[in-house]
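Pectate lyase superfamily protein
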Amino acid sequence: MTEPLSGLQRLPGRLLIAASVLVSTLLSCGAQNPARMSSLSVNASSTTGLTAPVGYVNIKAYGAQCDGVTDDTAAIQKALNIQSNLYLPPGTCLAGTLQLKSNQSIVGEGPSSVLLQKPGSDYLLGNHLGLKSTADVSTNMHDIVLKKIKLKGQAGKVPFDEHDHLLNLNAVTDVIIDQVVFEGYVGDGFYLGSGRRGYERHNLRVDVRNSVFDGVVKNNRNAISIIDGTEVRILGTTFLRSGRPGMPGAIDIEPDYENDAFSRIRDITIDDCEFRDITSDALISLLLRPQDRLTYPSRNITISNIRGFGNNQTNQTAISLTHSSWGATEIPTESTAPLNVRVSNAQITGVYRPFMISQLKGAVIENSTFSNSRAFAYIGEGDANGFNRDITLNNVLFDNVGYDPSVGYKALTIYSNAGLTLNNVTVQNGTGLGIAFSSGRSSKVSITNTKIINNNGKLVYGIRRFNNHTLSPSTNRSEGISLVGVRGNDFLAQ
């Protein structure tokens, strides 16, 4: 099977969108850029007498009342069908299952410009589940801009339904979501899907920027779900009061198991995002399929400059990284393609478990701090099925991690791994054990320039190897391990 994404000859996505928006506006009004609301002047539409930015048409020109009561679905859909550039004025426009098209821009005045999901609608805004597209991304719906509007759901007013989303896009290319508030979603705030199960659809170059996802009632599925995506970026975005126990994450990257032959999770960036009062099972969840099952293995996921604040909700994990989704048990081999996931400059406090890594090859966590967590972080799982390869922690601080004796009594647990590097790792204000090698086996483990500091008098052992863990000393490396105020180092290397 030939991969259609690899051979694309194109401009960078931001240039394509800028060019598309510029051409659309030149045709309608001159030389204004509709993607730059800050520079748009507001004029009376020459055909309607309703105010709108130059080059845009006010949706009220098509009969939308935006009074929060009248069903505006038909009026807004008519506007979407006829116009490319639409202005959503301040007010609340009740609608459901609205369909976008290519080369479409919807802009408003910020949180006061509201699209309110009509109860009973499958979603608020979308594109027919990508049914009009094909596996070839050249047939995708493309060049869509949503800016300075609010998409509001009915969470708390209707029963929970994990498939009831606000924005439901499938088979799209070059999408910009900028300064959009997603509020009170019943299922997901933004679902980036691959069409119906078993259909091959792909998403390319999708940006979520400077936006807010607020679940309000903490009885939602995910803020963002990514089922298929290449060059997807989530930047400068805040996540609040989102999820519920048993749901994957505020951000959930989780391809469907039926799509192993064609799904793509590639070049994903999550940067400068903040998470507060999240109630799902993770802040960020990578529930990926085993690499060796995939025609196009997942690759290149960057999570950087994130901030997470929790209340130690039981069993919640800040960052969950695994290739064991949908019950898969395959473990990575020497020939498995590495994922290359990098977590950099994460600042996480008060989340029950800092992170977990399982059945994965190729992960780096660096320049990060995890603090005030009841339970320990872990790499691997308590049996051979959680085996990892090529995992690195570099310049990572565990501060008061694993402080609850009933759920761990250590900062970091290492299970089965081959190729594990701990460099410049610090454990301080710990309880019980600093680092533990628990049930499993490990090889090619390097621990260098690592400090375990008993500065609160609660640590009783530095590095403990339990009897049910088998080390391979001849493959290991140890240098510059410093135990301050605590005894015990069972890590063997030669």
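thats it. Residues 281-286+312-335+342-494 form one domain. Residues 1-48 have pLDDT under 50 and may be disordered. bye
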